[in-house]
Specification:
This protein is of the alpha/beta class. It has two domains: about 300 residues, Glycosidases (TIM Barrel); about 70 residues, no CATH class. The protein contains 15 helices and 13 strands. Helix 5 packs across helix 6, helix 5 packs across helix 15 and helix 12 crosses helix 13. This is glucan endo-1,3-beta-D-glucosidase.
Length: about 500
């Protein structure tokens, strides 16, 4: 195994020391039986799926996993493991799936039926927060029809009794300006569609899947303390009538319960499809704070105390976001979105959290193959007056999110930040010599330029042609295939 400095960032404490500290403070409760992790594929150099399953999921006894999209490699690796699997349907597929039952049947056949005998499917998650306000009406008209067509395809394949169809929805579909759960209700622009969706879910005994983003909420609600988000004891909990809330999680669930009740679905089951905390890319995004949130969440769920509106009825399942860092993930909600992994992109644990392994330290992915110990930095001997354009180009095509205010490399200064950008681009392009040119300003070195906690990563051995934007490539291919089916087959 390579030295930890070769990864993006080492754990803040040694696992042995951290374990002793945790055990000394309080006995470790068992993990909530219904905790899982999300697994995304937006990485320029992803670990092979088999290595993720055999090297991370199984050794750490992860009971369930939610795939961001259907991946033949991931599904094949999960076959025969007994791990419960949720498969995502990207937003880009909603329109073609809504337009044709044949397209939905083809998707189910290719991504579900082929693996149903060996993969333990639990949910199909249609869309990826398709009701975000930033999307406008782009996806909304297609969500319910696509969901219905997927359900019909499962029925025809005689698989509907083995899994449920859900639609992941962000808290923005029901939260308003107030932080009080009793004031929540679905947004007027989505209310009619939500009622249609809820009717579908109720008719098929499916739960409502909500995506929580506590870090984004913390950034937006300056009146709420960090303790409120980290499950710390609060002297002054949030009061809402007779109910008191000392953490963001319970308040978010009860806000959803209120919104569901307002439209007649107050007893619907709830699955939390996302709940996590980033470790880089913003102020308060550190491994230590992330560990505090994640451990607090898992321990809170283990108590099965429920919420003030649903006492002793916790969510059916909760998925921790996320398994691995993704350097190609969208940063529309902030640079920290690429740093939500419990593990670094190369499968090294950043901190302790009980995802199934109990009080033991998390096991890292073994036998990771890195590229040679080479980095690309700015050549200080050259005239650097025009280096800004090269810096911008490197960042726009690489990953400079660690340079953001509060990030692990935000203190580098100039020209260290330029070197970081150059190296990111260089590693993402498999250390090809021409990717460290930058108009003659780049220099390849074998001396690690990392400084303190700011680590200049090394890429792992993966073909760039096959790895850059893999999810996007899959989506584009499937959209083409589905639209071909729509335009050449008679609709039924």
């Amino acid at each position: 195994m390579l030295p930890s400095r070769r990864g993006p960032r080492p754990p803040p404490f040694s696992p042995a020391f951290l374990l002793l500290l945790l055990l000394a403070v309080a006995p470790m409760p068992p993990p909530a039986a219904a905790v899982g992790v999300t697994w995304g594929f937006a990485s320029s150099h992803p670990l092979p799926a088999a290595q993720v399953v055999r090297g991370i999921l199984l050794p750490n006894s992860v009971p369930r996993v939610r795939l961001a999209a259907a991946s033949s490699d991931a599904l094949s690796a999960l076959a025969g493991t007994g791990v419960a699997v949720t498969v995502g349907v990207p937003d880009a597929l909603l329109r073609p799936l809504a337009a044709s039952r044949k397209a939905a049947a083809a998707w189910v056949h290719d991504n579900i039926t082929r693996y149903a005998s060996s993969v333990r499917f639990e949910y199909i998650a249609v869309g990826d927060e398709p009701f975000l306000p930033s999307h406008g009406q782009h996806f909304q008209p297609f969500v319910v029809p696509a969901t219905e067509n997927i359900q019909r395809a499962l029925i025809d394949a005689k698989l509907s009794s083995k899994m449920k169809v859900v639609v992941p929805c962000s808290t923005e579909v029901y939260q308003n300006a107030s932080t009080l759960p009793s004031k929540a209700g679905f947004r007027p622009d989505v209310n009619e569609t939500m009622v249609e969706l809820l009717s579908f879910l109720a008719n098929n005994s499916s739960p409502f899947m909500v995506e929580l983003n506590p870090f984004l909420s913390f950034q937006q609600n300056k009146k709420l303390s960090l303790d409120y988000y980290l499950f710390q004891l609060m002297t002054h909990p949030v009061k809402d009538g007779q109910n008191k809330y000392d953490n963001f999680f319970d308040a978010s669930i009860d806000a959803l319960v209120t919104a569901l009740t307002r439209v007649g679905f107050g007893n619907m089951g709830i699955v939390v499809g996302r709940a996590g905390w980033p470790t880089d890319g913003a102020v308060n995004a550190t491994p230590a704070v992330a560990q505090s949130f994640m451990t607090g969440l898992v321990n809170h769920l283990a108590k099965k105390s429920g919420t003030p509106l649903r006492p002793k009825v916790p969510p059916i399942e909760t998925y921790l976001f996320s398994l691995l860092d993704e350097d190609q993930h969208s940063t529309a909600r902030g640079d920290c979105e690429r740093h939500y992994g419990i593990f670094t992109f190369d499968g090294q644990a950043k901190y302790y959290v009980n995802i199934g392994q109990g009080p033991k330290a998390l096991k890292n992915a073994p036998d990771v193959e890195y590229l040679p110990s080479k980095w690309c930095v700015v050549d200080n001997k050259k005239e650097l007056s025009n280096v800004s354009s090269s810096f911008a180009a490197a960042c726009s095509n690489g990953d400079c999110t660690a340079l953001s205010p509060g990030g692990s490399c935000s203190g580098l200064g100039w020209p260290g930040n330029v070197s970081y950008a150059f190296n990111s681009y260089y590693q993402q392009h498999d250390q090809s010599e021409d990717s460290c040119n930058f108009n003659g300003l780049g220099l390849i070195t074998t001396v690690d330029p990392s400084v303190d906690d700011c680590l200049f990563p090394l890429a792992i051995r993966t073909s760039a042609a096959a790895s850059i934007h893999p999810t996007l490539a899959i989506i584009v291919l499937k959209v083409v295939v589905l639209w071909f089916c729509i335009t050449t087959c008679s609709l039924t």
